[in-house]
Amino acid sequence: MVQPKAQATTCPYCGVGCGVLARASGSASIEPVSGDPDHPANFGRLCIKGSSLAETLGDQNRLRAPEVDGKRVGWDEALDAITRRLATVRAQHGPEAIAFYLSGQLLTEDYYVANKLAKGFLGTPHVDTNSRLCMSSAVASYKRAFGADVVPGCYEDLELADLLVLVGSNTAWNHPVLYQRIKAAGEGRPNRKIIVIDPRRTATCEIADLHLQLHPGTDAYLFNGLLSWLAATGAVAEDWVQERASGMDAAVAAAKASAPSPREVAEVCDLAEADVEAFYRLFADTQRTVTLYSQGINQSVRGTDQGSAIINCHLATGRVGLPGASPFSITGQPNAMGGREVGGLANQLAAHTDYETPGARDCVQAFWNSPELPEAAGMKAVEMFDAVASGAIQAIWIMATNPVVSMPDAERVKAALANCPLVIVSDCVDHTDTLDLAHIKLPAQGWSEKDGTVTNSERRLSRQRGLLPAVGESRPDWWALAQVGQRLGFKTAFDYPNPAAVFREHAALSAQTVKLGGGFDISALAELSDQAYRDLTPLQWPVTHARPLGTARQFGQGRFRTPDGRARFHSVALPVHAGGPAADAGKNRHEDPLSQSRPNAESTPGSFYFNTGRLRDQWHTMSRTGRSPRLWQHTSESFLAMAPADADRMGVADGQFVRVSGAAGQLVLRLRRDSGQRQGEVFAPIHWNEQWTGAGRVGGVIRPSCDPASGQPAFKHSRVDIEPV
Ligand code: SF4
């Protein structure tokens, strides 16, 4: 028998976006996959999650047919029910009573149709996504500085850099193939330096020349201090700044006010002054410097300011969009970037425009020929679920995500959904904590079954390709959304024969919005034939008629997407740290955990900062990686990592259960002594939930404190009390 040819597709796990070669083996499985040697993200490499993909598939535990109110039905009945119930909510309560909560796991085509249906045809602005939890602070700081949400650099820069500063990023576990590339690029280059800035000593520190194990949430002080130092030591690229940027004097003044010298920075960040100086000297002296940052920066009450403080230092030295020199935010999810491209965040409209972009509403409405379009931004994730709880939102459609586990104050999210009159959930598995609360369940196609595109952290569009037949009656998400659009009476607007047609429309819209100042442009792909879409090879946007092969870097010429073409420094003003506790400490559910006094072993012996994150071999809430026995071998149960000195002080032994009590609830975890933890700080992985262990969710204890600019919740430094069970 002739073997089917291996197809090039894209790993669905992290934002690295590795190319995978995969081949069907029968009708319900694929052969073990290999890395695609021609894909520019990974050149054949894969991490264990990627190489285990074949083990996570199959038709077990799949949602096989639509269900309405607990009864299995056909698609027509389910789609009619959705259309009728959404129309009723809209008629009785207005369009703003409807919300969509999307996911960085969706393909760009799914995201595009969801955004169009919600904003253009149902008229609700309330479209947000689990990417709000991932990188929305980075988006806000890019827009502040560059006038657009654009990552200036590319993965090659991580190899070209002579100094790589990894901030709040356990790259070795969370972006493993990039870590492999970074490590390999250092071989034989003794002068190349790597600095890791992280409150935990993680696996990434193995390649660090210097680890700055700072106090959580103090990164902006460290980078404000760097800006002060650059200005004070004459290390600013004066000519570049004068010609290409605005606002440096004010930013330097703000930096000096909060972080005037390495000594003060060392004190606030709880670092050795000599280490702070060593970092500053290396940064000042190394032209080819990349600062790579992720959730440790973004998931903070001051995530946007932390991003701005980093970007300010790159602007001051003219290191933006040059080979081996850029500030580089790396996304967690495989298609967080694609969601940004279509406008899938509540503050966006479409195709990288937002409600403040002059002319954007008229442009998008005319392009979609839609009956209406909201006039102002919608609610971001935390506000959205608050509105579900209050009854302001009466209907929510959740796609490819599990907010009952992943949101902060997760018990409240669960209660809100349990009381919501209409919860629609599209997913490919038959059971998640969120799916269990749905009135209408829609079976979605999963990885290896569906066709579409994703965009990785370096702006590279890649195809995910269908290899296997659909399981049961599952269908692509874009199709289900378009069917509802048609049933609402908008036959032409949602008449898509295939995902290629959706993609062409998305590309054509970018050709319109880029004229208004949007950063996203794939206009050269608007005329792709179905065959060319099937054959599409990885490309970095912008992809224009002038640059049909894509664009590796942006802004290297010093022209930005601001009205005057100049980059903008942002003055990062910071409060005096470690002041007394706020008067209402512990009472306000949105309170800034950094505004309270630091945990103190004598006065508050059980009080800790609570940090959360991913493990190497699991993904999100384990609905897919949990199916692979190989991926359980790394870590088989959840835990709470604590510094040995703290464990001794509290009298708890390795393996003993402890109760973790936060502002939003409690969780019981097994204690793990970990010398990589700072004293006064503990860490737990995010993945476990009731589906897998019944052991509770970390989101259930975390207060929903958010960054005021981005709305991103602070998962990295909430406050908890710990006691032995
Ligand atoms: Fe998949 Fe990320 Fe691993 Fe690449 S690094 S194989 S994208 S999980």
UniProtKB/TrEMBL annotation:
Belongs to the prokaryotic molybdopterin-containing oxidoreductase family. NasA/NapA/NarB subfamily. Residues 577-607 are annotated as: Disordered. Residues 594-607 have a biased composition (Polar residues). One of its GO terms (molecular function) is 4 iron, 4 sulfur cluster binding. Keywords: 4Fe-4S, Iron, Iron-sulfur, Metal-binding, Molybdenum, Nitrate assimilation, Oxidoreductase. Its cofactor is Mo-bis(molybdopterin guanine dinucleotide); [4Fe-4S] cluster. It comes from Hydrocarboniclastica marina. This is Nitrate reductase. GO terms for cellular component: membrane; oxidoreductase complex. The keyword 4Fe-4S applies. One of its GO terms (biological process) is nitrate assimilation. It comes from the Bacteria. Residues 4-61 form the 4Fe-4S Mo/W bis-MGD-type domain. The chain holds residues 1 to 725 of 906 of the full protein.
